[in-house]
Prior knowledge:
- The protein is an all-alpha fold.
- 67% of the residues lie in helices and 1% in strands.
- Among the domains are: 1-81, no CATH class; 288-504, no CATH class.
- The protein has a two-stranded parallel sheet with strand order 1-2.
- α18 links the parallel β1 and β2 (411-412).
- The longest helix is centred in the last third of the chain and has 30 residues, at 613-642.
Amino acid sequence: MFVCRGCLRSLTGSRASPVRSHVLNHMQIVAPSISTRRAYTTKAVNPDLRSAIESAIQSGEQHSPSKENSSVETQRVGDNGGDLAYENVNAKSDEYGKQKYEKKLEATVKRVLRLTTDPYHIAQHVARVLEKGRFDEALMTTRLASRGNKVEVSWNHLIDYLMKNHRLHAAVKLYNEMKKRAQIPNAKTYTIIFRGCAESPHPKLAVSEATRIYNFMIKYGALKPNTIHMNAVLEVCARAGDLESLFTVLATCNGSIRAPDAHTYTIVLNALKFDTSKAGNANMGLIDTEVKREIQKNIHRARAIWSDVIANWRSAKMIIDEHLVTAMGRVLAMGDYKDNESVLELLEQTMNIPRLDKPNAKLPDVSAAGGIGSGAANLPVPESQTVEPGKLSPKARKVLAGSRANKDPLYAKPGNKTLSLIFTVLAATRRTSSAGKYWSYFTNILKVTPDHHSYSWYLRTLATGHASGQVADLIEAMPPTLLTPLTLRRSFTACIHDNLNKNAFDNACRIFKVMTTTQRYPDALAMRLFLQVARGNTRHFHESPPTQQELQQQQQTSSSSSERQRQHDEQPLTGKAAHGAQILRALNHMWEPLRILTGSLSYPNSVTAARSPGEELDRKRGTMQEVSATARRMIAAIDRVTNDEGMIPAGRREVFKLWRTRRIILQKLLERYMRIMYPDGSAAQEERERRTVLEEEERFEARSPLRAVGDSLS
């Protein structure tokens, strides 16, 4: 009918024409029917109708749009506003560009959906597309497939993709769209949403969304939340530090589908531990008494929760594991002395670990402890007393707990976390002498392979107890891959604190030998600490020397003059001479490693080549500063020995000449490094020179005759 452009122009140009109103009314009736038919794929009306209207407007005169046209355009754009927008469409592009992109995408997706209608294969295709980062195609595929199929797994893949990319709002919006399209969310859907909320960088928003969905599931949802969902929501609240919401969610547990398990209590105890550490470290304007009160309040909460854990454990309603026990132990370890002592009682109660910290405690016999620590991955467990729930399925754990209802409880299997917790408690309670017993018990009887954290905590405990001999034994037994500069520094620090032990320097020499044989380049700070051990371990040199009567008795017992001379030569040095010999021995150990370390600075690093000499200098500046500090300490030690005549025994002047020569070498090395690092002079030297100039000016002004005349006139 409307083929002629003149007719269309007359229709669009005239406002009062009844024919035009009738035609536009017909358009308004047709447009919603077209949009409802394409509601799953596009927001636009029929493209033919759009082109007809646009051509009519372009050929006609410039008039303002009528109310009817504006209502049609509004309905065309906003009819599907609740859907998720596509990613690859620019927000500033026109509506025609969006429609063109959607049409092309729809054609691609329809070609794929012609091949299969199986939800399983559709979900696999969506997962492969998401792996390639094509979210728009996966979203269009899921929307078109939702018309006649139940594709909840595909929706789960989309929500999981958005959660992993930290797009919480978009994921919740997609979850709501899933329900609008008659796709019923399953248990996996809610698990993905809750776990994604736990990993969200916006914890407060995640808590509000997770608790809202969780409460909706409890009150109105056809699918009631289970223990996994409750644990996921608890994890969200724990990561946000919202204890009020956490205990509110914990109150929804019951004895059926939301029965609390070991993971539930582990999350709650870890949240209490985090809140306790935050109150102790942040201070937040609190005094020490208030901080201790907050810590004790959380410990009281943890003890109340632990009473429920023990009740469920003894009634065979749940199985405890190492994570749960150590979580409770970490909370108690933040308390006072009595709280730390109760940790060892906790381990004895739940893991059957004997109290080796008591006086006269002995290690149990290996043959008698054959059942301790044995694996129990298979059901049933008739003789073993420990079990590792992490290797069992939830159904197997429930069957195992029910089978042990009228028997002895199943103890948790200890591991490296338990060993680290024990060393933390021993260091806090100053019972470091028992650390070796626990280490032997875990490594020899329980057959626990120590990891890096266990070695580190054991070393800290021995360093707290100033046990330099055990520290040296541990360093020699540690795998070379676990030896770090920090480990070596802590070892030498333990030898420094053990200065009352006459063998402290010998133990330090053992550690230094391990460092030079296992490390490619020695640590400069560790070498300075080694030198400090040699300079500080001197008490046994200044003990009361043997009396004259004892020396005469030793000479009388000697049969000949040659034997007396030999005894005199073999007699250990005492006093300053022994101290000087010890310092020279340390310097002799340090000389070759220092040469190797300085040699590494003479050539550029071939692995990461620098683009300029300035960049290479910036890389090596820190190492040069450490080597310079070590060289200064060695020069000071040489001066200490060579300037005191009592530190070098008579008849050993060649030693004096040797170290005087080496001192000159160290001094030249130090001067060369200073010129390289500070070509314009060091900052300290410039400051000293500036102060000297100011002082000279002040003295000159004080001696100036004009200043004297001015003072007399004033």
